[in-house]
Amino acid sequence: MKSIDRMPTAKNWDGGFYRAFLRLDRDRRRSVALRILREKRVLPDLYDHFLIQEARREPGRKTC
Questions:
Q1: Range of 35's domain?
Q2: Position 7 in a domain
Q3: Total domain count for the chain?
Q4: What is the distance in angstroms between the CA of the first residue and the CA of the last residue of the chain?
């Protein structure tokens, strides 16, 4: 049985969760997204994502 806590890696990720997420109606997608954002283990990755996006918009700043 698969562990729910196991996060997909680039090697084994098939996009099934994302495809299922996109099939939800707008209100359900919002609800799922808010539940994910309340998960404290996601926050460091979310911060990194936004910092990288911001750095990419600024010329001359390296993202790695």
A1: 16-57
A2: no
A3: 1
A4: 37
Residue pLDDT, tens place only, 11-39: 666 778 888 999 999 999 999 989 988 88
Q: Does 26 reside within a domain?
A: yes
> Tokens standing for 37?
């954002």
User: What count of residues does the chain have?
Assistant: 64
| Residue 52 to residue 48: CA distance in whole angstroms | 6
- What is the rounded distance in angstroms from the CA atom of residue 28 to the CA atom of residue 31? 5
Within a domain: 63: no
Token pair recorded at residue 6: 């196991």
User: Burial code of 8-35, b = ≥16 C-beta within 10 A, e = fewer?
Assistant: eeeeeeeeeeeeeeeeeeeeeeeeeeee
pTM value is: 0.50
> Is there a contact between 21 and 29 (Cβ–Cβ < 8 Å)?
yes
How many Cβ atoms are within 10 Å of 54's Cβ, its own excluded?
A: 11
